[in-house]
Amino acid sequence: MRFAICAMVLCMVAANGQAGSLGIFEEAGDVGAVGAAGKAKFNARSKQYTVTGSGENIWGTQDAFQFLRRKLDGDVAVTASIQWKGEGKNAHRKAGWMIRQSLDAGSPYVDAVVHGDGLTSLQYRKVQGGSTEEIQSPIRAPAMLHLTRDADVFSLSVSRDGKTWQPVGSVSVALSDPVYAGLIVCSHDNSVSETAVFSNVAFTALGKAEYRAVVSTLEIVSVETGERRIVYRGDHFEAPNWSVDGSYLLFNGKGRLFTIPVAGGEPKQLDTATATGCNNDHGFSPDGKWLAISDQSEGDSRIYVLPSTGGTPRLVTPLAPSYWHGWSPDGKTLTYCAAREGNYDIYTIPVEGGTEQRLTDAPGLDDGPDYSPDGQTLYFNSERSGLMKIWRMKADGSQQEPVTTDPDYADWFPHPSPDGKLLVFLSYDKSVQGHPANKDVSLRIMDLPDGKPRTLARLFGGQGTINVPSWSPDSRCVAFVSYRLVVLRQ
User: Fold this and answer.
1) Edge-to-edge strands, sheet with 166-172
2) Bridge partners, residue 144, by sequence
């Protein structure tokens, strides 16, 4: 695991930096208009950094704080534990790691900070003088922070014990080399100074990549707490399904299907016989005995059914392309997206095969249909309004109506929870066309039938993240895939 590799390198870096009065850093200074000059020092014996800073805030369009820093080219992984000295005046004072384009008060940046009240978050400003945004961690301090830069993708993980790391989120921010990287303190009250002590400080400069590879991470997120757990990390794969008995997950990669225990382990390839071009549209029958798959080993994608334990696929949709998305609760009908006469629409067909029924005919793309647990409603995504949104209709195609309306998001792949109370879906920024891979995306969730969407997780992903139903059988968790573009050297 990358954290373990980093830990060994970090110790060597810290040891080599002890000769300087600032440890592994090059300089310390204030950024922005601070009320009192800050300071920083390094204790070579304890390997701790003590940083004192003033400043109104690190937020909005301008920042003010103390910055213990060094210049950096390329990727980096940094770690620290943070402890405030004293009770402090403002609960929103901040201390943490920052990677910043320049020392200008309105510079683009990414940081991982602990607030005075324990809130931990990934903050970022994407453009010079732009607004600040954040991804809040469900885990509060005390916790170790681990921030990575992989090209333009910044990721934060936290750990309560320094051994088990939980992802918080990822965001892409374009910073050009060189950048400044280091420790920060802001008092959030310009009339006072606050002090934080940083221990377990680790800095691994990973350099520039000769080339990059997509690394996939299979994760599980709790819908109640938002905490995320890594199940497996490996070469590119997509689209997890949760088995009906709750014991394992299914995903596709390189044209094949694989299973892995929910607790983690090594994936095992599922026997799909002649179906060697499985794409990311697949899922279990309600009784768990069968799998519907979309396979393109014979050309355009067609839908097949085979035993969930593996076996010979049986063709269901002779017409192509056809992409499976849902199975009716009674196990008798499949719903899917298909292109016929140049337009992608929603269709259904008996599991045993036969005549397909077209349910939508709006111009543009209709995609991603999935049944409600009672079988009465189909949720799907449609661009008929000009922006991709979640819609619903009766199972026979009648009463088509929008579900999401937020103008800032393009929404894809809705999946009702097994208990029928929640709907999870994937959201891109409104500017993104289609459902591409390797983008900043959000998993959003809402109460049914007409709740207000909220963000469940923010990550680097998109295509392959949550194309198919991936709820746990008890409706408490969702499985998904996040992605990273990591450094590789020959």
Assistant:
1) 39-43, 48-53, 194-207, 75-85, 144-150, 153-159, 166-172
2) 159
Tell me 33's DSSP state. Answer: -
Does the bond joining 142 to the residue before it have cis omega, within 30 degrees of 0?
yes
Q: Would you write out the chain's pLDDT as a tens digit for each of its 490 residues?
A: 344 334 333 333 333 333 358 999 999 999 999 999 999 999 999 999 999 999 999 999 999 999 999 999 999 999 999 999 998 899 999 999 999 999 999 999 999 999 999 999 999 999 999 999 999 999 999 999 999 999 899 999 999 998 899 999 999 999 999 999 999 999 999 999 999 999 999 999 988 877 778 899 999 999 999 999 999 999 999 999 999 999 999 999 999 999 999 999 999 999 999 999 999 999 999 999 999 999 999 999 999 999 999 999 999 999 999 999 999 999 999 999 999 988 999 999 999 999 999 999 999 999 999 999 999 999 999 999 999 999 999 999 999 999 999 999 999 999 999 999 999 999 999 999 999 999 999 999 999 999 999 999 999 999 999 999 999 999 999 999 999 887 665 4
* CA atoms 351, 357, 362, 365: torsion sign: positive
Give the Å distances, CA to CA, from 297 to 35, 257, 360.
66, 13, 28
Q: State which H helix or E strand residue 230 sits in.
A: strand 228-234
Output DSSP code: residue 321.
S
Which of the 8 DSSP states describes residue 458? E
Secondary structure (DSSP) of 115-172: ETTS-EEEEEE-STT--EEEEE-SSPSS-EEEEEEETTEEEEEEESSSSS-EEEEEEE
What is the enclosing helix (H) or strand (E) of 449?
none
Q: Please report where in the chains the tokens 């080219």 appear, as a residue.
A: 73
Interatomic CA distance for residues 219 and 229, integer angstroms = 5
Confirm if 181 and 69 have CB atoms less than 8 A apart. yes
Phi/psi of residue 14, nearest 5 degrees? -65, -40
- Which residue segments constitute the domains of the chain, with CATH numbers given? 2-207 (2.60.120.200), 212-488 (2.120.10.30)
